[in-house]
Structures are given as C-alpha cells and as structure tokens.
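G.,

No rush on this.
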Amino acid sequence: MSQEQPRRPSGQPQQQAAGGEQGAVRYGDVFPKVSGGLAEKPVAPQDAATMQSAESLVLGQTLRGGPGAAMQSAATANERMGVVGHDQATDATAVQGVTVSETRVPGGRLVTEFVAGQAVGQYLARDDDATTGGRGAGSGGAARGGGGAAGMMVDNTKVTIGEALEATALAAGDEPVERSDAAAIQAAEARATGLDANVPGGLAAQAQSAAAANAWAARDQDKTTLGDVLADATAKLVGDKPVESADALRVAGAENRNKGDGTARPGGVAASLAAAARLNRDEAVWDQ
C-alpha cells in the first residue's frame, strides 16, 4: 500500500555513533509528515522505548500499530544494520523529548504524540475509556497513530463511515486519487471524528498528498489509488460513527464541488456513503 511514499534526505546522511549508513530507517521514512533535522535522524532503540513507555503511562498499554510500535520496528532494523547501538537515543528524544498534548472534544479528548515538537500520531479517547491519564516526567504522553479500535464506541448493527470508505476501496480501488476524492475523504473523516482540522497523517492528509502527487505523475501506474489510501480505513480513523443522511450529503457536496463536471465518481466515496446511509435508514425502519 503506497499511501505517502517514504522519503530520504537528498544530501549526505548525518553521521551517527555507529556510522550513519545510507540505508538507515529515518524518522522521515516512518512519519512522512515530519520535517527538518528530525526527518533525517535514524530511529534509535531508546527513542522507541521512550515512546512506548509514554503510551503505557497515558493509555495503559502500548498501542498496536501506533507510533511507538512503528518506531520499535524501525529501531530494530537500524540496530541489526549496525546504524545505532542498543542503548542509543537520538538528541530528538534525549534533549527535546517526547511530549503530549490533550484537547477536549465532544465526548472525550484528542491526544497527540510529539517527537521533538512534531506530531507523529493522534488518538481520540472517550471520557469513559478505561485508561490511565497523566504525563510521564520528561517523556510526556502518547497518541494513536491512526486507529479507532480503542476510541469511539459505534453501533455494530449499522454501517460506519470507515466501513463505507473501505467499500470504496473495493469498488473503485484501482482509480487514481483526484482532488474531488480527497475533498470527499476529508469531509468523511471530519464527520466520523467530529474534528474540524485534518488529523496529522490521517486519511484526509494522505488523500490530499496523493491527489497533489498524482496531478504531476506522468504514468497511471505511478499514481496512488483510492485502494492505497482507503484500505483498512476503519483502523486509520481516530473515531468512527454510523453513516447518516447528513453525513452522505456533506460528503457528496464536497466531492461534487471539486469535480470538473460536478458529478460523483461511480462507486466512489460519495456513492458509498449514500448507499450506507440508505442501508442504515432502511434497517432502522425494518427494526421497528
């Protein structure tokens, strides 16, 4: 799955304690949204340990598929290559640290993980989640790197926005992401999470990057597809909810406004949410 393509610094790699080999897995490879000097630094084992410790302190567990797990995988690869030592930490965590920011949202809190002041993941926690709160001294807290499994509770009898987006990946997964698709995905993510701003590294951010890159791609085979972005959408959303008619209308409006001919893509995001809204409405009538 391509999503945003990992990037490596174009110049000479910074020299690390174990040689700074060209093949090192850097922060920019793991978290494509980070920039500056942090993007060029190889992920070190103690960086990952700090992040996982912070996740455990704040959320009561290390998040499966979260930033800490991603950093651990990268650090393990770097240690095997001899790029970093087992007890090594980069100055990104040793000096600037891993911190946490919590923002109150309706029904819960949005927790954001930072490395050296740059966001690397978010997690939407309900008020009644059985997790521990607080910040670790010096290391801060933790976040969710793109999943809603421990976040909002949803009605399992109805089709959710995340499931409708996954249906788009099946119905139109081979289609390159266009600006209209990105607008529809942004609207869908906002309706699912209740957040006005894009989630860093979330579906909308990935779709917008893909649409911009696709506009410059010379060959179709080089373009990022809807399937690349929307596969496992439910796991990537920081919150989810059953699709309602208002959600489908908002998404359809966003897609149509950004498409040249003003029509929705067959099997696309708007079409999938419209179908889901109808299913959910019909099921409610049937249950009565």
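When you get to it, here's the other one too:
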Amino acid sequence: MGSKRPRQVLITGCSVGVKGPQVFARRWQAETAATSSQHQEEKITITIDANLLQCCVCSGPLTTPLFQCTKGHISCSDCCTDGALDDESECLMCREPETATRCRAIERFLAGMSVPCLFRQHGCKEMIPYGDTQAHEASCRYAPSHCPIPGCAGYAGKSLVDHVRVGHPNVHHTSVRPDCLTPLRMRASEQARVLWLGSCCAKFLLVAGRDVPSGRSLSIVGLMDEQFQDEFKYRIEVVSKDGVLALSGQANGVERLARPYQASAFLFVPNAIWDSYPEDIPVFVHLK
C-alpha cells in the first residue's frame, strides 16, 4: 500500500486569504465591546466609613474640586485657597508651605457614588448622588418638620396643612368672610385656631403661643396648599376693658417649617388681660 496523504479539513463560512481573519476579528471586537459595556453598567454595593468622606480641614462632606497634598491631606472646595483655579492650592493642614494638587481620582469616585437619604427612616426611598446630598436634605419632604402649634413634637412626611388636618383634629375651624372683622371667641386654653377664608378657601392658622413672658403671642401662619397662591393681609384685635390691642401684617404661605416656629410679628397679650376672661377671649380677625 502507498503512504497515506495528510488529512484535509474543509472550513466553511470563510474563504482562504485575508477575508477569513477579518470576519473573526470583527466578531471578536463585537463580543469584546459587548462585554466591556456590560462591565461599565454593572453596579456594586459597598459599605464605607462616613468619616473617610470628610474634609481633613473642616470635617465637612467632601465637595469638588478636591485637593490632596503630598502628605495625604484631602481638602474640599470650601477649604481651598485661591490657587484652585490653577489646579493647585496650599494645604491648610500642613504647618509648612505644602503644594496640593487636584485629586481627580477621588472626584471620579464621589461622582459615581450614590447614598441613601438621611431621612430614610421617615419614608424617603431615594438614592442621592453624593454631591447632591446637602441640597436634597434641605428640600426632602420627609425631613423632620416643625409645627407652630405649642406642644407639638413635630412631624415628617406631610406638608404643614396636612399635618394640622391629620395631627391636630381637635383644633377648631372658623369660616372668615373676606374683608370683614370676624369674632372668634377663643377659649382661654386654646392654642390655635384654623381660619377658612370663604372666597378662596385659603387656610390660616392663628397661633396662641406661650413663648413670651407674662403673656400670650398671637400670630398668623398661612397654610400653603393649591388654594394659597397670593399674599394676604390680616389684622388681629383683642378687646380688653381698657382698650383694644391690635396688630396688622401680611400672611405669607408656609408649606413646611424646617426650623422651630418663630413669628416674624405677633400681638402681645398680657396674662392680666388673657386671664381676665375665664371662658371666651374676645379675639377678632380681619383677612383680605
């Protein structure tokens, strides 16, 4: 028998020459690009000590641009010197003159990081880009809010008008005719009264505070809702045996109070007048 010839294998789908490698090269590039895109979109969850994200100078949250000196001190934009525009700055942590340069690696890290809202225990489920946390917390509807009614511990998750309706169902309501002096006849122990302005259904809160010595402070708070679109003027009067105490002002709408309530203007009613009426206090309100 003669010697066997080498076995030949036929590969289909590509032709001999340069064309075959080009087909495989394009296929490999497409698969590589798809894999790379998949890795870029992949997100991971990590746990990090919040203290590591604080500025070495002010101990506040790191905000871009960030600078780092050769000794490792990282400072935020608020703690940078005028050299920040030139991508270099003086390190305020070092006792000796030390040049700090932009720390772009940490900037990219913070730009891609999201954190849960500080008020998640109150119901906020948003994940906030790290650089936007302060702005979000200042406007988050789930942030703890303060109530102007004396003795209220505050609330979260509702606007002030909804909180008064749900959290203080025992507060009396009085309908007030616009541009008319309306008698309220408040109780001596009453801390607040909701006022309805009949023409536009706008709501106001008349607060009888005890935050002043030897008396009460009467003030008006506009309860902001879809009906409260304008600025209203008010007048409060308390009639006593010796005369009339009066206060006029402008009631602006309040959606929520981020700080404890402090009236910009109030009518001071001494205890000698307030307590002289054992049942009803002759209080009059004028709204327009």
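The longest strand covers residues 215-223. The first helix runs from residue 19 to 41.

Enjoy the weekend,
O.
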